[in-house]
UniProtKB/TrEMBL annotation:
Entries under InterPro entries matching the protein: Biotin_BS (IPR001882), Biotin_Carboxyl_Carrier/Decarb (IPR050709), Biotin_lipoyl (IPR000089), Single_hybrid_motif (IPR011053)
Taxonomy of the source species: Bacteria, Pseudomonadati, Bacteroidota, Flavobacteriia, Flavobacteriales
Domain (Lipoyl-binding) ranges: 79-161
Positions in coiled-coil regions: none
CDD domains, per database record: biotinyl_domain (cd06850)
Keywords: Biotin
Highest taxon, organism lineage: Bacteria
Protein name: Biotin-requiring enzyme
């Protein structure tokens, strides 16, 4: 496999590395968020507005216009072709009791926004306190237990929107 990549801009313009190299583009990072781009002897300032490192997607502002840019290397392209992309991964929409126990505390409320690994509730099982954390970022849709409830293994505790 050679070192190639694919650059997708606004989900419609797709450039392969060989095409990109032939565009006479030179890119220099000024600092963490700012870039200097030279294309066909014309200078542009670009700013990285946002970045999602996990899927290599970026929002780039050039001359007041925002562009959605996604970069894929050979491995990313192969994973997508095989159907193993993260976009196909099943979204976790609920938290179920991993074991029977007693709900000691609930640290969230309906409508609350939580981040991945935020503590949702405390489940006591076998005289041990177990902190159940959020499997993903999201908004709490419903809480199906109350403080002091006993729960069975697999019982639905919390749902996400």
């Amino acid at each position: 496999m050679n070192d190639s990549y694919q650059l997708k801009v606004n989900s419609d313009l797709v450039l392969e590395s060989s095409e990109f190299d032939n565009q006479n583009i030179d890119l220099v990072r000024i600092d963490k968020k700012n870039l200097h781009v030279l294309k066909n002897n014309q200078s542009f300032k670009a700013e990285i507005v946002s970045e999602q490192f996990d899927d290599r997607s970026y929002t780039i502002a050039v001359n007041g216009n925002n562009y959605q840019v996604k970069i894929q290397n050979n491995l990313d392209q192969l994973i997508n072709q095989l159907g193993f992309s993260l976009a196909n991964a099943k979204q976790v929409n609920s938290v179920k009791a991993p074991m029977p126990g007693l709900i000691l505390d609930i640290n969230v409320s309906v409508g609350q926004e939580v981040a991945e690994n935020d503590n949702l509730l405390i489940l006591e099982a076998m005289k041990m306190e177990n902190n159940l954390s959020s499997p993903r970022a999201g908004i709490i849709k419903s809480i199906n237990v109350s403080k002091g409830d006993t729960v069975d293994k697999g019982q639905l505790l919390i749902e996400f929107e």
